[in-house]
């Protein structure tokens, strides 16, 4: 998948602005696991080109902020505060 994203990098006509990326992030956080990719794009508060939206989704997947489940629904998985709490418990780690 990473190789496909790098190959298509040369074909990108427009890169998204920061406010657009933050808008998509906020919308995904608020609607966690409700929409598939195309329906998420259709329900965004501001319209954008589908190619720009795909660039944002690829970025969020690579930065490990979202995931796509077996049904194709997009969910928010980036919770840094809860990770800090879970790191306190030693029984959650693998023993060597």
What can you tell me about this protein's structure?
- By secondary structure, the protein is mainly α.
- The protein has a single domain, classed as Arc Repressor Mutant, subunit A, CATH 1.10.10.
- 50% of the residues lie in helices and 6% in strands.
- The protein is built from five helices and two strands, in the order H-H-H-H-E-E-H.
- A two-stranded antiparallel sheet has the order 1-2.
- A hairpin with a 5-residue loop joins strand 1 and strand 2.
- The mean pLDDT is 87.
Structure annotation, total helices = 5
- How far apart the termini lie comes to 31 Å
Domain count, please report it: 1
CATH topology: Arc Repressor Mutant, subunit A
Helix-residue proportion: 40-55%
Q: What gyration radius follows from the Cα positions, in whole Å?
A: 16 Å
Mean pLDDT: 87
Low-pLDDT residue intervals, each spanning 5 or more residues: none
Count the strands? 2
What CATH architecture do you see? Answer: Orthogonal Bundle
Shape: globular
Element-level helix/strand string: HHHHEEH
List keywords for this structure.
5 helices; 96 residues; mainly alpha; single chain; two-stranded antiparallel sheet
Task: Describe the structure concisely.
The chain is mainly alpha-helical. It is built from five helices and two strands, in the order H-H-H-H-E-E-H.
């Amino acid at each position: 998948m990473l190789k496909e994203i790098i190959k298509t990098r040369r074909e990108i006509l427009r890169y998204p602005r920061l406010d657009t990326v933050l808008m998509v992030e906020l919308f995904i956080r608020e609607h966690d696991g409700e929409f598939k990719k195309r329906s998420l794009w259709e329900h965004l508060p501001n319209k954008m080109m589908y190619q720009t939206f795909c660039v944002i989704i690829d970025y969020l997947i690579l930065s490990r902020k979202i995931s796509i489940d077996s049904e194709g629904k997009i969910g928010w998985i980036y919770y840094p505060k809860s990770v800090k709490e879970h790191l306190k418990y030693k029984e959650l780690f693998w023993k060597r």
